[in-house]
């Protein structure tokens, strides 16, 4: 049963944030990431009357907080300790440099996910934790994120974890439940039996997100470098940067250093 009392608390919090922004000049990263990530590049949004604009802002905040309440298996515990094994396995890394459009570039290696040890919810929590950290960056607020999913090592055991319920929750974040623009999703090394899983997720995606999904296959280096310069890609993917293992270790260290902040925004008891 949905914890309506807790949702009400988050609604009050969202209203407090928005109205405090109307009444004061206090810089708050909530307004930054909402304005920049959802309204950037949209003249219509920026031309709205202030009342409607802040109502728009409040709605976005409320959607995200509501999603967090409705998906506790993903979002309640954002402490790094909850996904430490995945991080130490080198599942996730972030490129040191942005792409030419200013987007933050994230890499996920499915082969480093042991489905016997971690659920799809655990894996998705890694993405949420990273998103909570990078959404505070002004350039990321403006230019969004792009993700590279290396599906080498994808197994039926992974596929069995992606139920329609999981697919729906993943799609919700990619569309309007998290305040970051997804500028591109690049799949490499995808096996044939991954396509049924993507077909399960696809109906939940908006047309805009569908247009931003690229399947590069096994011979991906040429097509991938049409989207990302070799100067920013790790060596394993035809680039000139350090290895993905180094990038994964660097990002793991950053997440661990952010443990206090992540603990403060977790919904579980401290």
UniProtKB/TrEMBL annotation:
Alphabetical GO CC annotations of the entry are:
late endosome; membrane
Output the InterPro entries linked to this UniProt entry. CRAL-TRIO_dom (IPR001251), CRAL-TRIO_dom_sf (IPR036865)
PROSITE patterns from the entry? Answer: CRAL_TRIO (PS50191)
- Name the Pfam families on file: CRAL_TRIO
Domain of life, source organism: Eukaryota
Gene3D superfamilies referenced in this protein's UniProt entry, alphabetically: Alpha-tocopherol transfer (1.20.5.1200), CRAL-TRIO lipid binding domain (3.40.525.10)
Segments forming domain CRAL-TRIO: 79-245
Q: Which is a GO BP term held by this UniProt record?
A: vitamin transport
A molecular function annotated in GO for this UniProt entry is: vitamin E binding
Provide the protein name.
Answer: Alpha tocopherol transfer protein
Q: What is the lineage of its organism?
A: Eukaryota, Metazoa, Chordata, Craniata, Vertebrata
